[in-house]
Design brief:
single chain; about 375 residues; Aminopeptidase; 7-stranded mixed β-sheet
Length: about 375
């Protein structure tokens, strides 16, 4: 630990120095706007929905580290993002000091139930920092970002004491979610292992099979206004720290899907569906084709693990469960589990990934599901005899 380091809130006068720090550390490939976009940086530093901290070396009066805590006060969940440490100060504990400042947010006087973070896998350092600070590994996001290559990221969460005790116990889940619950239960023994729900062959009452096509409206301000005015159900609005910037509308106006799309790395989250997912099974292929044509290489959907019908539709649409977030959302004093269902549009590629061993069970369960979905369904003919 270096005595001359002082951790303090970021100010607007720090912007240029912060931009230089992120560029020096990550180059032009950094996927978060905080480290590359001066306007986004200004908004975050000025907003009460963020807590941006810097580490300054008083000896040379320079910023040598930074972290952003995003705050969802309504749902009592936070996110630690954009952790950066100057290359000359590595192994000095700066990253751990910055990350530890989030403990107050989930302490006895804090207003959050949990803080999560995602770490890149081009090197193992950020994963080790989070593990040392008590963050639990809860999953992976395969091929989530297309930078120089397709890059997998990880999910890690730190809980407030008592948050898990408030969770609604899940009784039944689709069979393909059970391996994920088993892995998480190794870390969190208080999590019950749900029983297997019998999977149906299809959902009655869904929209009839037909040819559909989608139009895409990529207009961040317009789409966000539409989302806020049209999507009134809180359940359909819940996707922490993701605001829709893309609207996918079926040409006849019967279906609308709000999404967030990062054009720079092909990452996409499907945030809200109208009608709900379980009625859209027959049109999901057309929706995915449209997204792929826009440059999307990875798609994810966050869904409550009690939403069995929606999960079944996603499974039949070749989405796989890759991360589990117990007690993610609080409603009327009780917390609910969510699963991240993911689908990569490109061949699965884990080459060059550096991963801490705590994440291997998540990779194993995902690969087993992937093999079951894509390989074991192949028909092999022996016609040479």
């Amino acid at each position: 630990m270096i005595d001359s380091i002082q951790i303090q809130p970021a100010s607007l006068k720090d912007r240029e120095e912060l931009l230089k720090l992120y560029f020096l550390t990550y180059g032009r490939d950094y996927p978060l706007a905080y480290g590359t976009d001066s306007q986004k940086m200004t908004e975050a530093i000025s907003s009460e929905e963020y807590e941006w901290l810097t580490a300054r070396d008083l000896k040379n009066d320079s910023i040598i580290g930074s972290i952003v805590f995003e705050l969802d006060r309504l749902n009592k969940v936070g996110k630690a993002a954009a952790l950066v440490v100057h290359p000359d100060y590595r192994k000095a504990g700066i990253g751990s000091q910055l990350l530890a400042r989030g403990n107050a947010l989930i302490g006895s006087d804090g207003f959050l139930n949990s803080i999560y973070t995602t770490t890149r896998t081009q090197n193992i350092g950020p994963q080790l920092i989070c593990l040392r600070e008590g963050y639990l590994p809860l999953g992976i996001f395969p091929n989530a970002h297309k930078l120089k290559t397709y890059e997998t990221t990880t999910l890690m969460v730190k809980f407030k004491e008592g948050a898990l005790e408030k969770r609604i116990s899940i009784e039944k889940i689709p069979q393909k979610l059970i391996p994920l619950y088993e892995v998480v239960r190794e870390r969190l023994p208080e999590i019950n292992l749900p029983k297997c729900a019998e999977m149906s062959n299809g959902i009655s009452g869904r929209l009839p099979r037909k040819e559909v096509s989608f139009e895409a409206i990529f207009a961040p301000n317009y789409v966000l206004r539409r989302f806020r005015s049209d999507v009134m159900d809180p359940q359909n609005q819940f996707y922490p720290f993701h605001s829709p910037n893309l609207l996918l509308a079926e040409e006849n106006g019967n279906i609308e899907v709000f999404a967030f799309f990062n054009k720079s790395d092909g990452y996409c989250t499907l945030i809200s569906f109208n009608p709900p997912i379980y009625e859209l099974e027959d049109v999901i292929p057309a929706l995915l084709d449209k997204l792929h044509g826009l440059g999307v290489s990875y798609v994810e959907v966050l869904v409550g693990t009690d939403r069995i019908q929606s999960i079944e539709v996603l499974l039949r649409s070749q989405f796989l469960p890759s991360a589990l977030y117990p007690a993610m959302r609080e409603v009327k004093g009780r917390t609910y589990d969510f699963v991240v269902m993911t689908r990569t549009m490109e061949p699965l590629n884990f080459r060059g990934m550096q991963i801490e061993q705590a994440f291997k069970p998540y990779i194993d369960q995902y690969v087993n599901l992937w093999k079951s979905m894509y390989l074991e369904t192949l028909e092999v003919f022996r016609d040479y005899e």
